[in-house]
Amino acid sequence: MGPAGDAALAIALDDVRAAAQRLRGVAHRTPLLRSRTLDALTGASVQLKAENLQRGGAFKFRGAYNALTAMNAEVRARGVCAVSSGNHAGAVALAARLHGTRAVILMPADAPVLKRAATVGYGAEVITFDRYRDDREALARELAAARGLTLVHPYDNPLVMAGQGTVALELLQETAVDVLLVPVGGGGLISGVATVAAALSAATDVIGVEPEASDDLVRSLRAGERVRVTVGPTIADGQQTPIPGALTWPVIARRVSRAVTVSDAQIREAMRFAFERAKLVLEPSGASALAALLAGVVSVPGARVGVILSGGNIGAAGFSTLMG
Amino acid sequence: MGPAGDAALAIALDDVRAAAQRLRGVAHRTPLLRSRTLDALTGASVQLKAENLQRGGAFKFRGAYNALTAMNAEVRARGVCAVSSGNHAGAVALAARLHGTRAVILMPADAPVLKRAATVGYGAEVITFDRYRDDREALARELAAARGLTLVHPYDNPLVMAGQGTVALELLQETAVDVLLVPVGGGGLISGVATVAAALSAATDVIGVEPEASDDLVRSLRAGERVRVTVGPTIADGQQTPIPGALTWPVIARRVSRAVTVSDAQIREAMRFAFERAKLVLEPSGASALAALLAGVVSVPGARVGVILSGGNIGAAGFSTLMG
Questions:
Q1: Would you call B57 an interface residue with chain A, using a CB distance cutoff of 8 Å?
Q2: B152-173: pLDDT as tens digits
Q3: SS3 letters for B257-271?
């Protein structure tokens, strides 16, 4: 594809730069951490971008805050809504509170307890639905229409994608990487990250990492088109999306070299490694990119590797159960 | 006391500055992290100095590396030894490896598994002793004499004290604080920190935090002289020292305004808070200063508070047991 192809994509570098301006002084500039043990184990030079230390405990705050900030003030004042089982819920709730507006979040009844508590804690109204029986998109549309709220999609929203891309902007400002490992759910993070990498560091391979139970990106890249999968059970609750987003997919198809999968056991080992060696708390989805590196799913001897640790929202009890 | 009193102290600001030079590019400059939840809970503006993210998982690396670096090269080449149940053991082992020399560490047989494994992992020889029956000081002297090793004391060593003080140098370069909460064992960290605070930020109150089971500093400050206590059982394995050090005490007596104690239950809650809200792994001793703040043992509404999170060396299994 030529420039016309690029122009058809939902976001470009300037959108991410604009997001970075909006996030300045509000989102944390999260640290880039090293682990010599990790370097020794992988033969690579690894930099960990600790988005588990972001406000709200995950990168999701970047996209949500960018979307709310860019919104027309009157529209925003009427309130926002979102559908999410987890980190996007908390992120929208927090962004709404910072903007002094209300948030109503549709969460599945089986959403992780800590994530629901965080969302309520940020002042949002939470409405639960049945993950298996209810049509979440229809519920969201009805809710938005009935209450005059603006829906903030967790990934298929250019402002959300651009906000997530600021992770890569920070990372590439501080270090050069040959490979960048990025957890993938609906593709909001990786589409933003890959947009930045393509513009600022074209030689960097951006690799998506999914749980085996939800390998829609691997299959889509192989097929050259969006493929819908049946999501199986996985501990990676933040990555249970059946198909790449309509807006994220074209960006990913153009900018991402490949995607790989990791098992729940590999994710668990990465969480344990992060805990014991890096002293960092990662939730399963937040550890998936690290898992790909640690398990050797991606082999990168001699390379400079960036790994996005995308979130850390898990309770001490839940963690203990997973490690037991 | 006048300047004559200061001159009699084991360390001054220049010693800490010299340590910072030696540590440059070797020790991590650990991040200063914020938690809005913590600010809201305490009514203060809190900055967390994350020394759990230091090399070796604790601030101890600073002092050990400073001591080995300043050592005569021939002396260092013959090897070093230390007595420690935990983080100082790993720190000396790591510093020795970086200097290409050998380390022999005396560890009690009941030292935490992860800490012993880390010490061995860094290439040190570990000799175990019985915490209750053996005279560790005598053992260490015999070992040093028999093998020509130089003993690196965990806190009563000016180079160790100065190295630990670099924690405060970094903290005060980045932010101003009214109160600085510091975990206390033998006093190496707080003596270095208080030396820096006295020189660069005289209005800052440096407050020591001990486990209830080992309140020697609280009693010593009250008595105006070193008081020896019988150490009771506590989860804070890094703070089980019966008496302030001979070299650390004069510095502490002159520079530290007060000390407080926290219970094991308060430490456990601080570890849980760090895990769930700050996404940080803290070992019990590493969480004691945070515990004092969270439990309201130190009440600081409106103040700018620095908290040193001194270490994070605990296994996932051990953590799960403590949280259970």
A1: yes
A2: 999 999 999 999 999 999 999 9
A3: CEEEEECHHHHHHHH
